[in-house]
Write a structure and sequence with these properties.
Layout lengths: L1 E6 L2 E7 H6 L12 H18 L6 E9 L3 E8 L7 E4 L9 E10 L3 E5 L2 H13 L7 E5 L2 E6 L6 H14 L1 E2 L4 H7 L1 E4 L3 H8 L2
Pfam families: MecA
Organism: Paenibacillus sambharensis
Family: Belongs to the MecA family.
């Protein structure tokens, strides 16, 4: 479980599928109100408080994004109110009467996102993707000192989809950011056809 602060009132939590399996939670369970998911949320909020000093009292807006091949991203924003609340008991004994008031949004993303520390790796993986005929598509972003390649393999046959992930994993690491975060906080370097564009410029 990895937690980072996006702003004073917003944090992002990245859960790998291993994090979920360790707690006996399937990806589909995040869409259900069950005690295990409540416990996981309490654990996330305790860790956010101990690591970042993020106090989760009061109303919270929670966005859960399922990412293929990577895990889940949970974005928690403090201070938004809505008519739809789910009560999560506070585990702190000093605040027995408090609950987490949550407005939960669940989204499934098919975008495959990988991060690369070095632009040379982006060039290498692009050449491999193009020469093997797997893909000439993709979007390239710059974010927090890294390059991010994003693919939307909707409609691709599973073998092609897994081949893209296998090649990306050789050179980079699965990224715990969503496209929405990249477009808000990162910089779009190549908006479409990134693989082909990179190969054209770096023969």
């Amino acid at each position: 479980m990895k937690i980072e602060r996006l702003s004073q009132d917003k944090i992002r939590i990245f859960l790998t599928f291993d994090d979920l399996l360790e707690r006996g939670i399937q990806k589909e369970d995040m869409w259900r109100e069950i005690p295990k998911v409540h416990e996981l949320f309490s654990e996330m909020m305790e860790q956010a408080y101990s690591e970042l000093g993020f106090d989760a009292s009061g109303p919270l807006a929670v966005e859960v994004f399922a990412l293929p091949a990577q895990g889940m991203v949970v974005i928690v924003t403090r201070g938004k109110t809505d008519s739809h609340h789910i009560g999560y008991p506070d585990t702190d004994d000093d605040h027995d009467d408090e609950v987490y008031e949550m407005e939960v949004t669940l989204e499934q993303s098919d975008t495959v996102m990988y991060a690369f520390r070095d632009f040379e790796d982006v060039i290498s993986v692009s050449k491999k993707l193009l020469s093997s005929g797997i893909s000439e598509d993709g979007r390239l972003y710059a974010y927090q000192g890294k390059y991010m390649l994003a693919f939307d393999p909707a409609g691709s046959e599973p073998s092609k989809y897994h081949a893209i992930i296998a090649l990306l994993a050789e050179y980079g690491e699965a990224a715990s950011v969503t496209t929405a975060v990249l477009e808000e906080y990162g910089k779009v370097v190549i908006a479409a056809g990134a693989v082909k564009e990179i190969c054209n410029h770096f023969e």
